Structures are given as structure tokens and as C-alpha cells.
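C-alpha cells in:
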């Protein structure tokens, strides 16, 4: 073997070792790299238990072109969100045989479902961990998500992390953003802050009660903006595609509605009432004329079915585009590119 061949062999070995360090072993790095989706994904992603387990589907905004994308019963899908450029999808799923309340992680796949790899807690040895609520940065280079760590001491602490889109550089955010009463729901269009809701204590006589308020935080975790009022829960804010408005849920004594306002909380307009139980925004359409939303309809007792809704952002009506009448249809994302 000549010197050039030896050099090339050593270079290949070095790259292979680097890849192992970057993505972990075959169980925690690239998974099912030869497997793709069952069909070409459409613009709206949703999850349904039509086949008995939660699987990923897609559909057009008018309710046509229904496509089932996944079918693995051992790894049901919990969440899925399109990247800003429409080339990737971040998914939340149970981890193999460890399926349970504390064992779910984030995975990244190409738009066709191939090249699947785990990107959260790669190589982690934490005993109890549950990653979820992923949101993309506007440039598609980072993903923010919440992690539930521990279950026995101090309740269920939630920590907010960011990780880049190849699964390295995982960092915990500090400051006021880390609390078990905080949920991250979006990333600002300028890339400088995160949007979500947090609970604030309100004292009424001798009774302390907690109410959700819309909030934003800097990437260092410092509070920038809080909007809401005592006695009502303001939750699940989603920023419009233009960045000018937000959609959110208000829960007033167990009656929920979908609302829209400017991003600073002015010009509040109700778009939908509690016709659908727990209605909340999921994603704005690319042109901001409609909002993809999730809500429920009653079944027997306290059970209800998740419905996939399209809400006019001017308040001119709501359409149920759920393709399955007797199965849950929970929307998760609307491709904007």
C-alpha cells in the first residue's frame, strides 16, 4: 500500500469515528435510513389513531389528498413539525421498547421520511426523560424543545433546551424560562426570542391560584413580555407567518375560545368559540388568511375526539377537515414553503 492509499484510509477512518461521536451508535444515531414515508407528504401534517396506534398522515387544506405516512406500531408518533424550508420534519416519538410516559425523544427526518436520526439527548444516561414541544428557529438551524427530567423530587421539572438541526450543540437555556409551569410554542421571526405561556400565581383571599399568561423570553432565558389577566388562562400562542400577529387560546372558567391579536397583545379578536372543546391554534397558513387549529367534539362520558380545523383569521368561520369521523385527527404543522 503506497503513502497516498494509507492517507486516504486513515482519513476515511477518521471521518467514520467522527460520525460515531456526532450521532452516537446505530440505536441512537441514524435509524431506519433506508425506510421512507409510505407516500409523498402533503402540506398539513396530522396524527391519527385510525389504524389503532398514533401514526403520521398528511392532507391538503381543503381536506383532499389524504395520505398515511408512517405505520410502525412499535413507535407511534406524538408530534411532527415542518422545517421552515420544507425540507425536513422534526418528530417526537416513543423510544422502541421503552415506550412510556418518560421515554420519548426528538427525531429528524428528510421530507420523504428517510435519513431518520435522533437529535435529542443522544448518548444521555438520564433515567427519566421526556422531550417534546419542538419549535424551529426561523432559519431552520436550531430547534428549541422542553425536557421533563426526574419524577420523584420536586415534582416534574421542565427544562428548555436548544439543539442544532444535526443533533449536536444541545444547550440548556437559563433564566426565568426554566420552570415546570412554562411551555414553549414558537420562535420569533427575527430569531431572537421564544414564545409560549407560563403560569403566574394570583391570590384571592387565602387561596392561591395559577393562571397561564402569554410570554416571550430571550435566548438567554430572560422574560421579555407577559400578556394576560387573572382569572383566565391565556395559552398556546402561535406567531403568524408575517410575524405581525399571534393566535392563542383563552380559557375562561372552562370555556375556551380561539383569539387573534397583534404580537404585543392589542386589537384582540375572537375567531372561534367553544363549539370545539379546548380549541387551540397549531399553525398559521403561509398567507396568514387561515389558522390550523385543534379542538374536540364530545363522545360518551368525558371522552372527546380530536378534530382538525381550519379557522378563518378574520373571524369568518371554522371548517372541520378531519378525514376520519370515528378516530382522532390531531393537526401538528402546516408547511409554509
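Residues out:
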Amino acid at each position: 500500500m503506497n503513502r497516498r492509499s494509507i492517507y486516504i484510509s486513515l482519513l476515511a477512518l477518521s471521518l467514520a469515528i467522527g460520525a460515531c461521536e456526532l450521532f452516537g451508535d446505530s440505536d441512537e444515531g441514524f435509524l431506519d435510513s433506508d425506510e421512507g414515508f409510505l407516500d409523498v407528504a402533503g402540506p398539513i401534517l396530522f396524527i391519527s389513531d385510525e389504524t389503532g396506534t398514533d401514526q403520521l398522515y398528511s392532507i391538503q387544506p381543503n381536506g383532499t389528498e389524504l395520505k398515511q405516512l408512517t405505520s410502525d406500531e412499535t413507535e407511534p408518533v406524538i408530534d411532527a413539525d415542518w422545517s421552515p424550508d420544507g425540507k425536513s420534519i422534526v418528530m417526537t416519538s416513543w423510544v422502541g421498547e421503552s415506550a412510556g410516559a418518560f421515554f420519548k425523544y426528538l427525531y429528524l427526518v428528510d421530507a420523504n421520511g428517510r435519513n431518520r436520526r435522533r437529535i435529542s439527548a443522544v448518548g444521555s444516561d438520564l433515567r427519566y426523560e421526556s422531550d417534546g414541544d419542538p419549535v424551529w428557529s426561523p432559519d431552520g438551524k436550531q430547534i428549541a424543545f422542553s425536557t421533563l427530567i426526574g419524577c420523584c423530587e420536586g415534582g416534574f421539572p421542565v427544562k428548555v433546551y436548544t439543539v442544532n438541526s444535526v443533533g449536536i450543540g444541545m444547550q440548556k437555556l437559563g433564566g426565568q424560562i426554566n420552570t415546570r409551569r412554562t411551555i414553549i410554542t414558537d420562535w420569533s421571526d427575527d430569531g431572537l426570542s421564544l414564545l409560549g405561556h407560563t403560569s403566574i400565581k394570583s391570590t384571592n383571599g387565602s387561596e392561591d391560584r395559577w393562571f397561564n399568561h402569554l410570554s416571550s423570553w430571550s435566548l438567554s432565558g430572560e422574560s421579555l413580555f407577559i400578556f394576560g389577566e387573572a382569572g383566565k388562562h391565556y395559552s398556546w400562542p402561535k406567531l403568524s407567518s408575517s410575524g405581525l400577529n399571534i393566535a392563542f387560546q383563552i380559557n375562561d372558567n372552562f370555556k375556551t375560545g380561539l383569539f387573534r391579536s397583534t404580537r404585543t397583545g392589542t386589537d384582540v379578536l375572537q375567531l372561534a368559540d367553544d363549539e370545539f372543546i379546548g380549541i387551540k391554534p397549531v399553525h398559521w397558513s403561509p398567507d396568514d388568511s387561515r389558522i390550523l387549529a385543534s379542538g374536540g367534539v364530545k363522545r360518551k362520558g368525558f371522552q372527546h375526539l380530536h378534530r382538525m380545523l381550519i379557522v378563518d383569521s378574520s373571524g369568518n368561520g371554522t371548517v372541520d377537515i378531519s378525514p376520519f369521523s370515528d378516530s382522532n385527527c390531531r393537526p401538528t404543522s402546516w408547511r409554509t414553503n
